[in-house]
Design goal:
The complex is a heterodimer of chains A (about 170) and B (about 775).
Chain A (H helix, E strand, L loop, with lengths): L2 E5 L2 E5 L8 H8 L18 E4 L2 E4 L12 E3 L12 H8 L9 H14 L5 H7 L11 H17 L11
Parallel strand pairs in A: 1-5
Antiparallel strand pairs in A: 1-2, 3-4, 3-5
Helix pairs in contact in A: 2-3, 2-5
Chain B lengths: L30 H6 L14 E7 L5 E7 L1 H4 L4 E5 L24 E2 L5 E7 L2 H8 L3 E6 L6 H6 L12 E9 L8 E9 L11 E6 L5 E5 L4 H12 L6 E5 L15 H11 L3 E4 L2 H7 L6 E9 L5 E11 L7 H10 L9 E9 L15 H18 L3 H8 L19 H10 L30 E14 L8 E11 L2 E7 L9 H13 L3 E4 L17 H28 L6 E4 L2 E4 L3 E5 H5 L4 E8 L18 E14 L4 E12 L6 H20 L5 E2 L2 E2 L20 E4 L16 H18 L5 E2 L3 H4 L2
Parallel strand pairs in B: 1-12, 8-29, 10-11, 14-15, 18-19, 25-28
Antiparallel strand pairs in B: 1-5, 2-4, 2-6, 3-5, 7-15, 8-13, 9-10, 9-12, 13-14, 16-24, 17-18, 17-23, 20-21, 21-22, 24-25, 26-27
Helix pairs in contact in B: 5-6, 9-16, 10-11, 12-13, 15-16
The chains are: A alpha+beta (about 170), B alpha+beta (about 775).
Chain lengths: ~170, ~775
Amino acid sequence: MRLNLNVNGRAMTADDVWEGESLLYVLRERLGLPGSKNACEQGECGSCTVYLDRVPVCACLVAAGQAQDREVGTVEGLADEEELAPVQRAFVDEGAVQCGFCTPGLLVAADDLINRVPEPSDAEIREALAGNLCRCTGYEKIMAAVRTAAERNAGTGISGSTGGDRE
Amino acid sequence: MSNTHAPAHRPQDLDDAIAGGVGESPLRPDGALKVRGDFAYSSDLWAENMLWGATLRSPHPSARIRSIDIGPALRAPGVYTVLTAADVPGRNLYGLKDIDQPVLAEEMVRYRGEAVALVAADHPETARRALDLVEVDYEVLEPVVDAELAARDESVPKVHPGGNTVRYQPIVKGDPEATADVVVSGTYTVGMQDQAFLGPESGLAIPGEDGGVDLYLATQDLHSDRKQTAAALDLDPELVRMTMSGVGGAFGGREDLSMQVHVCMLALRTGRPVKIVYDREESFFGHVHRHPARMYYEHGATEDGDLVYVRAQLYFDGGAYASKTPVVVGNGTTLGVGPYDVPNVSIQGWGMYTNNPPCGAMRGLGAVQPAFAYESQMDRLAAKLGMDPVELRIRNAISRGGTTPTGQVLDYPAPVAELLRRVRDLPLPAAHNPDTAPDIRDLPGGASNTTHGEGVVRGVGYGVCIKNVCYAEGADDFSTARVRLQVVAGEPLAMVHTAAAEVGQGVVTVQQQITRSELGVERVNIHPNDTEVGPAGSSSASRQTYVTGGAVQAACRAVRDRLLALTAERFGEPASELSLAGGKVVSAGSGVVADIAEVLGSEVVEETREYHHRETFPLDEQGHSERAQVQHAFSAHRAVVDVDTELGLIKVVQLDCSQDVGKAVNPESVVGQIQGGSAQGLGLAVMEEIQVGEGKIRNPSFTDYLIPTILDMPPMNVDVIERGDPNAPYGVRGVGEPPTISSTPAIVAAIRAATGEELTHVPVGPEHVIG
């Protein structure tokens, strides 16, 4: 089948998509956007988290056809060209990235959180990121990164990225 | 700093020291790529005309292969080739220590999940479906599933023709029959843990025009992979070129081969690029796990709490192939009494073949299992003596100058007692206030709203451990570094080339830091890891900062010497008076001589050096060795847990760690290693176990094999001390493994303190703590 969708603000088309393919497969293998990761294919690890119409979802659990004519936001769309998004900058600065395989999904989930809740408590951060597994960091520096991103946002009045204008 | 009156740049201006050197915490060079989603992991690779490979695996833990019919699979549309053992061009065996594992099963399958056949097709789903069309006729046999029985009972069927014992090692020190006034004994078991790295096994093989193959992959050791792969492909190693792609974690699980030979065979046969990516279920079958163990311990002590003897028998289940089992037995037995001074020791260790999933390297290799047992024993002994468990540990702690059970004298700091005191003195969390309603998110069960505090009890526990760093028992352990210095765009630029696998730990950052400190240049690029430079050995055994750090240091110093000789030649200053700092050559007598860039001109100075750590020696039949291991590392944990004794739910409230790292080359990365390692120890303590029944893995998914989430991992106080090892580059001591080892017994001790249950198995489950 042919799939038309908007990814990171650009209209995209994938041809010859097999009906059994997931949105994740189409992004990674057909649209040249391998930033979203495949680590469990069961919606358990969150590594493939993307925005679908501005709501974070596990792209591995979305059939490609379900994304027809919809808006998808991936980790590749978080940065504003050269400028890293606040969560991206904070993950680098705080050492929240080791192997980095979980990072793209965590960034989308964290970006969504600080857009919804500008000053999240630690309990709120933990709840929001509970669906994203990380095996390297023990999560402490991820907590620090989200706190830092939220503080910097509060300091500048700049909101987050892709999901930032969500009502 | 004002630059209003700054003069034009002159070489005589000695700038501030170069930022980002040893002891600082510069950001990792791959961080920005990783947060952008632009870092190319091995599973992200793509090539024109690429096919997808898939692997048929045995459904039986033990069976004879009567026949394989690939015809129906080969005829399926979209399928390009189907390969079996008959197609392995070279040696159909590989292995890290013992070369005992077939690339593709031949006659026998010895575990459920063993690779039997390969398919290449134009779509991953086509390849997977073709696997169902390969017809294998198996004669199913009774599997060997009990390692201890295999060790004790000669009538157990032999998994391999040579017998079921991979390694037996006794360690005897002092009087093996010693007696004592106070004796405690116990039997302890450790479940099979999975590395659960998030990036699944994957690689892209591209056939070369010269008959060779280029493989882009995620691994811990390129040269080890190349050696084994070339032998299986019957190719000159020079024709098997391996390049590291992004590695999504490793933790020991990428030391053995997985898809390496398979994907090269498919590429060479089809003449097209082939990619293999395991899914999570296949990953559970596609790599080795942590050895499950059953351990019998007896500790004897005086009434005052001085250890008199430790006797132990350790049975490690190695599964169907040897992998790192010999090393697990070596580490488990030599480190089997823990970081304590014990005059009389008798330990026997067995590593056995069974038809269970193969076990091998995982963080804390062979030291994790006995640490749970000996620390449980120390708590039991403290209770029997009526002593404080930390005081008992401090009283018996090994220290510099102490002798290990193998007879090795520790000739470097061993601050075990200090670590215990320090971790005990870290701040404790506040107790729940009985007058206010608790935030249920802080309680066991969390937002599931299973308790408002009723039935919840708190406990505090301690654990301390010892781990050897680098390869041991006579292995020639070394790494290679090539450092090139030249002027690019008017400034000196250093390029560091090693094969040291960056698996997330940050060895790329460490190499940059060492080069900046040694050469006094700011710009340091890291060449991609490949086999065009000599071996680095594996990113394991907490060894890369030690050995690759040592190699980079040595190569930098060789480059420096050439640079100083050039300066001496051109500027007439004696080389012995010269050094490098802040991008300049400086003379002890006359100050700044010249910019490095000026000295270099158009010259390219390149040097390659190996770093070998000091020699180690094998154990004799009594387990003695002057120096079995090159270095030991120590960490201590304190855990605070809340347990809902009605539902058996456990919440680790706080987990604190004191660790000696010798020299923190990158302090922030050191903390990251301690936090991450502690989380894996927490997983083993309360949640992670591969359930194996009749040789079959019952829970090969992240739905059923649970690893800690951000809700499971508590805040940590991390206390790093630096008691340098005079034998190691910069005094470094391996960092990665100890925190995985001492966290587990600390958490279990805290659960024991809360519940009063004995708890002789990890992971502790709800059934163990319900009062």
